[in-house]
Amino acid sequence: MKQPTTVNPPTELLAPYACDPAHSRGRLHAEPVSPTRTEFQRDRDRIIHSTAFRRLQYKTQVFIYHEGDHYRTRLTHTLEVSQLARALARSLRVDEDLAEAVALAHDLGHPPFGHAGERALDRAMAPFGGFDHNAQSLRAVTQLERRYAEFDGLNLSWEAVEGIVKHNGPLIDAGGNAIGAYAKSGVPEPILDYNTEQELGLHLHAGIEAQAAALADDIAYNSHDTDDGLRAGLFEIAEVEEAVPFLRQIVAEVRGRYPGLERNRLIHETTRRVITRLVEDALTESMRRVASRDPRSPEAVRAAGHQLVAFSEDMTASLRDLRAFLFTRMYRHSRVNRVMGEAERAVERIFAELLARPDRLPAEWAHACEATDRTHRARIVADYIAGMTDRFALIEHRRLFDEAPELR
Fold first, then answer.
1. Tens digit of pLDDT for each residue in 121-139?
2. Rounded distance, CA 26 to CA 5, Å?
3. What angle do the packed helices 334-356 and 114-124 form, to 10 degrees?
C-alpha cells in the first residue's frame, strides 16, 4: 500500500511573508511529522477537538445562554472569527490554517459569563497575580488540556502559540517594559513563565496570520454585537443611525434599495454590509501597508514595528464611534448590567469558598491543591472556574451554597 505524503499548500502560492508550515519553528515537545496534514492543520484540529473549545458553546458572549437561542455564544463568535480570519488570510496569500487555528483558540481562556466573569476573577486573583483571559488561553493549550500521553496541553506549533499570545501586538518594548493593554498591570505571569520555556519574542509583533485573526475578531464582534443588540431590543435602528454615521450610510443604502423592508431583514441586510465594508477596508489598508513595507519573510513582518493587518484611519474612526455607542447602549445597558452584576457576585463567591475550602473541589483538583502555597492554590481555583460554562457555574453555586443566582 502506498504511504500518504504530507499535504502542504503549494509554497509558490504563499506570499514570502507568510508563515510556511514546512518551516515551522516546531513544538515544545518534538513529534513526528504527520503524513497527511501540515503542522498548522494539526494545530487547528487539536484545538477543535479540545475540551476547552467544546465548552465555548455554553459561555456568554454578551447574553446569558437562557436569554435566547439566537444570540451569539462564545462558540458561535469564535466560528465567525475563524471564517473571517480565513477570508483575510486567503486574500493576503498567507496560511489560512494558521490564521484559523489562532482564531479558534483566541477565546479559550474566557471564564463563564463573558467579561463579567473575567472582571470577577481578576479582582479575586489580584493578590495572586491577577487573571487575564489571553493568558488563560495560553494555559489552556499548554497545560490544562490533559489528553495526550506524552505531554500536557495541545503541544501546538510555535507559530500558533505565538499567535495566541501576541495577536493583538507586542506585550513588552525593547527594554522589557510592559506596553499596550498590559502597561499598567504588567505582562501576566503565565505568559512570562511560559516564555522562559519557549521564547516567543514578546517585544515583536506576531506573524501576519495571527494579525489577520485579531482583525477578524474586531470585525466579528462589532458587527454581531450590533446585530444582537438590535434583535434584543436594547436599541433601535434609528438610534444607531443618529450616533454612528458609518451605519447611517449603510442603512440608507439598504432602505433605498429595499423600500419598506421589514425590520428583521433590514437588520440582516445592514449587518452583512457592515461585515463586507470592514473586510474590504481591512484588505485595502493591509495590502497598502504590505506593499509599503515589502516584507520578504515572516521575521520582517514581526519586526515591522506596527501591525500590517489593520483598518484605515477613516474606518478606525468609524469603529470608534460604533464601540462608544455599543458601550453605553449595550454593554452598560441596565438589563445587561443587572444580569452581569449577579454573575460577577456568583463567580467571586465561588472563588472565595473554594480557595478557603479546596476540599470542596472535585477530587483531582483538590489533590492538586495539596502541599501548595496559597498563591498556587488560588491559580488552581481560578483554572477550575475559568473552565466552567455558564450552566456549570450555576450548578456549582447551587452545590456550594444550596442556591443559584437569578440571572434575569
1. 999 999 999 999 999 999 9
2. 19
3. 40
